[in-house]
Amino acid sequence: MSSQDIPEENLPAAQRGTHAPKPADDKNPFADPGLPPHEHRIQDIDERAAKRSERTVALLFTVSMLATIGFIASFVAIPHDKSIYVFPLGHVNAMNLALGLTLGVALFTIGAGAVHWARTLMSDEEVADERHPIEASPEVRAKVHADFKQGAKESVIGRRKLIRNTMLGALTLVPLSGVVLLRDLGPLPGTKLRHTLWNKGKLLVNMNTNEPMRPSDIAVGSLTFAKPEGLDEHDHGFQNEIAKAALMLIRLEPEAIKDKRELEWSHEGIVAYSKICTHVGCPISLYEQQTHHALCPCHQSTFDLADGARVIFGPAGHALPQLRIGVNDEGYLEALSDFEEPVGPAFWERG
C-alpha cells in the first residue's frame, strides 16, 4: 500500500496537510476555524541557533549532575547538627539547607532542560487528529507505530548526541540522591546503643537537685530519678545521652524483692532501673507503691519492679535493664558498671 492509498488522518504528522477550516452546517452547528499556518522558529531555519539551544539544554543537564554530586557531598561532609544564619530565616540546619538546595537544583534543571529542548528543538507543528473508535484496527496500529517513529525522529535525540548523553547522565545520577537517603537516614549507631555514660564509680545525681545521693535520701516506697555524674542539661548532646542513661530509683523492703539478681544488684533495697520503656522509648514516670509496679504513660506497659522489672501488662517486649549500684567510701550511691543490656525499645528485634 502506497502513501497515496492511506487516508490523510492515518499518515504520520509530517505527511499530513494543514487542517482546513470547515463552515457550520446542520450537522455541526459550530464552525471549525482550522489550524493557523505554521510559523518556523529560528532554530528550525538556523543551525547555529539550534546548536545554541542544544548547548543550553546540555548545560542544564550538566548542572543537574553537579547538583546531585553536591547533594551527596553535603550529606557526607556537613555535620548533622551544624546550624548557620540565613536572612530572613534565622538559624537553620546547614545540612538540611544544603540538601534542599542541591536536590531542588538537580530536579529543576532536569525539568528546565526538558522544557527548553521541547520548545526549541522538537517539532512544534500542530496536527489535528480526528477521534476514532476505541478498538484498534490494523490501520490504527500502523498509524501509532508510524507516529512513534516520527516522534522519535522529531525529538532529534538521535542527532543531538550532546543532549542525549547529558540527559542520560543527569537521569542516571539524580536517583543517587534517593539511594543515599534510603541507605542512611542518619549516622549509623555502631555500638552506641549498647553503651551509656554509666560506668564503675559514676555517682548517681538527683535529676531535680543536681546533687549526689546517699541511701538516706531515698525513702521506702519513693520513686526518684537520677542521671550520671558530670552530665549537665546545658551540655552539647545532653538529650542524646539522657535518653539512654535516665535512671529511676525505687527503695523497697529487701524481703519484698523476688528476683535474686535484682536483690544482689541493689543496695539496702534501693533498686535502679532504666527509665526508658522497652516498647517505643517513652520515659516511665508512674509508680504504684503498694504493688511495686511502674507504668509507662504512653501505652500502659506495666513492669514489676520487685521481680526484675519484668513485663506484666502491655506491649513492651522485655524487662527494663537494671543498673548495678553500691556505695562509695564517702557514702554516696554509685554505679558498679554500665547496663548489661542495651536500653530502649525493641533492641532484640533490631539485633
From TrEMBL:
The keyword Metal-binding applies. Pfam families: QcrA_N, Rieske. Keywords: 2Fe-2S, Cell membrane, Disulfide bond, Electron transport, Iron, Iron-sulfur, Membrane, Metal-binding, Oxidoreductase, Respiratory chain, Transmembrane, Transmembrane helix, Transport. GO terms for molecular function: 2 iron, 2 sulfur cluster binding; metal ion binding; monooxygenase activity; oxidoreductase activity, acting on paired donors, with incorporation or reduction of molecular oxygen. InterPro entries: QcrA_N, Rieske_2Fe-2S, Rieske_2Fe-2S_sf, Rieske_Fe-S_prot. It comes from the Bacteria. One of its GO terms (cellular component) is plasma membrane. CDD domains: Rieske. It is a multi-pass membrane protein. Residues 1-39 are annotated as: Disordered. The chain crosses the membrane at residues 57-78, 98-118, 162-182. SUPFAM superfamilies: ISP domain. Iron-sulfur subunit of the cytochrome bc1 complex, an essential component of the respiratory electron transport chain required for ATP synthesis. The bc1 complex catalyzes the oxidation of menaquinol and the reduction of cytochrome c in the respiratory chain. The bc1 complex operates through a Q-cycle mechanism that couples electron transfer to generation of the proton gradient that drives ATP synthesis. PANTHER family: CYTOCHROME B-C1 COMPLEX SUBUNIT RIESKE, MITOCHONDRIAL. The cytochrome bc1 complex is composed of a cytochrome b (QcrB), the Rieske iron-sulfur protein (QcrA) and a diheme cytochrome c (QcrC) subunit. This is Cytochrome bc1 complex Rieske iron-sulfur subunit. It comes from Streptomyces mutabilis.
